[in-house]
Specification:
By secondary structure, the chain is of the alpha/beta class. It has helices spanning 21-25, 48-57, 79-90, 96-99, 114-119, 129-135, 173-185, 224-239, 254-271, 287-316, 333-337, 392-402; strands spanning 30-34, 41-42, 45-46, 68-72, 111-113, 164-166, 204-207, 212-213, 221-222, 247-249, 279-284, 340-346, 387-389. The structure holds magnesium ion.
């Protein structure tokens, strides 16, 4: 995806609101998770409301007044460059090192790029689709101009592929679809011909399940989720069996939010804010990834709170639970403090208020289009945002109001 420009918002400055000096002293007890595409940017253009929102979120030194983490399903190896550009466009002062998110390496990471996280899980020998195509030139037949002119000698020294990781939508879908299927059907040796289809197939991991995303065009663009739909259906059609994922990474998966929470905690520690964070607000434009994910995490937090309360009761009446012996020690206060993760849907991206998610979830659920991934349950209650606002600036204003936080 293209890099973002740095135009200044042409709109008027937000009106001044009376500042209560005591309020400015209050350390934050809430934080934000921002999606990027359709919330802060559209393609290479920064959304003016995002610049307005960040004027409220930053102090006069360009430092965040409350903890913020950017959580995007999009990404590639240049993501850290884009993160820096986005920070500049929003007036956010972060160093190049702190802009990119690589598991545990940067103490002050602000950005979660799911594919980058995936790239850091410790695989040692990585081959790309291009490497496979080069080693086995007879596999990629759709584009006649890319077919080999002469019959190449057979490749014999190519390593056996032990797993497939899908990071994001490829450039040439026909090549990737064909070669990934070849790898799965050949047990990782696409030069070989097997008598029977191996099943289960070698492990497949996928990042970014977003069916659609919003760039400059008026209509949404195909996301990696659309590519996965193609791959799953081709596999099913060819083999009669289900393509199985070892893991699905990114929003709306819980692990993405756990990592975001961890980054929020690091930020709070680094800034020396004394109070723990009790509430997170996740702002996004995609009901299926941003809203479903935040609501799913909220449900998880509530269940965790309940389990803690029950364990507390048991402890107080002196009932020992042998199952939880190792975990009976109270956890770090901060983790215990997080109570909720509220979802805020904006109308500047994929979601349109006149779209296909019904206002009443009991109505027409059969006809409603489900844009979520095959392996996620169609639970309409998880698609309902806690709040729906026009844009990210309104989202920030709403949260500041709810939290009695001064706007300037
Ligand atoms: Mg988005």
């Amino acid at each position: 995806r293209a890099s973002w420009g740095q135009q200044r918002a042409p709109g008027p400055r937000p009106s001044l609101i009376a500042i209560n000096p005591l309020m400015l002293q209050t350390p934050p007890t809430f934080g934000f998770l921002f999606d990027i595409d359709g919330v802060l940017v559209r393609g290479r253009h920064v959304i003016p409301a995002a610049q307005e929102a960040f004027r409220k979120l930053l102090d006069s030194n360009g430092q965040l007044r409350v903890p913020v983490v950017f959580v995007t399903n999009a990404g590639n190896c240049l993501q850290h460059v884009k993160a820096q550009e986005l920070s500049d466009a929003l007036g956010l002062k972060v160093t190049r090192e702190s802009a990119s998110s690589v598991l545990g390496r940067n103490p002050v990471s602000l950005f979660i790029s799911v594919p980058l996280v995936g790239a850091c899980v410790g695989f040692q020998n990585v081959v790309t689709i291009q490497d496979v195509r080069k080693a086995f030139p007879l596999l990629d037949m759709v584009d006649q101009s890319r077919r080999p002119k002469e019959l190449p000698p057979p490749t014999t020294d190519f390593p056996t592929i032990e797993g497939v990781i899908l990071f994001g939508e490829p450039v040439r879908w026909e090549t990737s679809l064909q070669l990934i299927i070849d790898v799965l059907l050949s047990n990782g040796n696409p030069g070989a011909e097997l008598a029977a289809v191996p099943y289960p197939h070698i492990p497949v991991l996928a990042c970014n399940m977003d069916l659609l995303w919003m760039a400059e065009a008026k209509m949404p663009r195909f996301g990696h989720g659309t590519f996965l739909v193609c791959l799953e259906n081709i596999y099913k059609k060819v083999t009669g069996r289900e393509l199985k994922y070892e893991a699905l990474i990114g929003k709306p998966s819980i692990v993405t939010y756990q990592y975001a929470e961890y980054l929020i905690k690091q930020q709070v520690e680094r800034r020396g804010w004394p109070s723990p964070i009790c509430r997170l607000y996740a702002v996004g434009d995609n009901p299926m990834s941003d809203i479903y994910g935040a609501n799913f995490y909220n449900r998880y937090l509530k269940a965790a709170c309940q389990a803690r309360a029950q364990a507390e009761v048991k402890r107080s009446v002196g009932v020992a639970d042998p199952q939880s012996e190792d975990h009976s020690e109270p956890k770090e206060d901060w983790y215990v403090s997080l109570e909720s993760c509220k979802s805020i849907l904006v109308c500047t991206g994929v979601y349109s208020p006149h779209g296909d998610v019904p206002a009443d979830p009991h109505e027409s659920t059969v006809e409603t289009v489900f844009h979520g991934h095959r392996d996620f349950r169609f639970d309409t209650s998880l698609l309902e945002a806690s709040y729906v606002v026009q844009d990210v600036n309104e989202a920030v204003e709403l949260v500041f109001e709810k939290e009695n936080w001064s706007q300037e």
